[in-house]
Amino acid sequence: MDYPTIADCVGNTPLIKLQRLLSGTSNTILLKLEGNNPAGSVKDRPALSMINRAELAGYISPGDTLIEATSGNTGIALAMAAAIKGYRMILIMPDSATEERKASMTAYGAELILVSAEEGMEGARDLALQMQDNKKGRVLNQFANSDNPLAHFEGTGPEIWQQTHGKVTHFVSSMGTTGTIMGCGRYLKEQNPDIQIVGLQPTEGSSIPGIRRWPEAYLPKIFVPEEVDLVIDMDQREAETMTRRLAREEGIFCGVSSGGAVAGALRLSAQVENATIVAIVCDRGDRYLSSGLFAR
């Protein structure tokens, strides 16, 4: 009998119905629980995809050093994937990240380099490319790597289509690297061009881990704005409030970008009828405990 490896357990996550937070409507809101992936987030999918395809292309081979800028989830996922495949992993991230995220990366054996909160993800991305130029390792570059959205085109999108029996009408995802929304959106539009693809970005001044309002110069190269039908600006307070409500009223323990996605789905539900809205719950809440988010 063949038993699965940990890599085989990435994907095929549950799609569950929102219950208590949605009532008196003809709509259904479904949540894709990506925190059920082995390293705890939707980023497990592109992490393995980018490494596997880079190997096939001869760009990297086990024993090499990989470098990546991350705000958290991709770093944890890449650290897991590097441990599975036999790579040295260097992760560069803002020092404002929660202690749980930092500890998760080092638990998998990754080395961390922290940049200041002022330098942020832009500074982390610049440093990663600079280190690659200095021959210190290879950058997979989740922001420009087509194997990032491809993981969702081949995995997440088809799962959603199959799990909803083709009834999905709206797809909602927070936007960071934009790999999830690009890959899922393309697949779902191929099945039914009428499906609405909805992205979330933070309002000016809001800080929501994992999603960004990128300056033009740092906009991910994989992002095609025309493939998103609607962009919702999400306030940090609204996203955090919904994150707490999901835990306390639905038993769904997730991070703030996921709370924002569900808040966006509920906003959308107030404007449509007879819709099946799918939102991505991209990670678990345990990696945000030290932030005090759930103590309020």
From TrEMBL:
Pyridoxal 5'-phosphate binds at N73, G176, T177, T178, G179, T180, S257. NCBIfam families: cysKM (TIGR01136), cysM (TIGR01138), PRK11761.1 (NF008735). Belongs to the cysteine synthase/cystathionine beta-synthase family. It catalyses: O-acetyl-L-serine + hydrogen sulfide = L-cysteine + acetate. InterPro entries: Cys_synth (IPR005856), Cys_Synth/Cystath_Beta-Synth (IPR050214), CysM (IPR005858), P-phosphate_BS (IPR001216), TrpB-like_PALP (IPR001926), TrpB-like_PALP_sf (IPR036052). The modification N6-(pyridoxal phosphate)lysine is found at K43. GO terms for molecular function: cysteine synthase activity. Pathway: Amino-acid biosynthesis; L-cysteine biosynthesis; L-cysteine from L-serine: step 2/2. Its cofactor is pyridoxal 5'-phosphate. Its EC number is 2.5.1.47. It comes from Microbulbifer okhotskensis. PROSITE patterns: CYS_SYNTHASE (PS00901). This is Cysteine synthase. Residues 7-283 form the Tryptophan synthase beta chain-like PALP domain. Keywords: Amino-acid biosynthesis, Cysteine biosynthesis, Pyridoxal phosphate, Transferase. GO terms for biological process: cysteine biosynthetic process from serine.
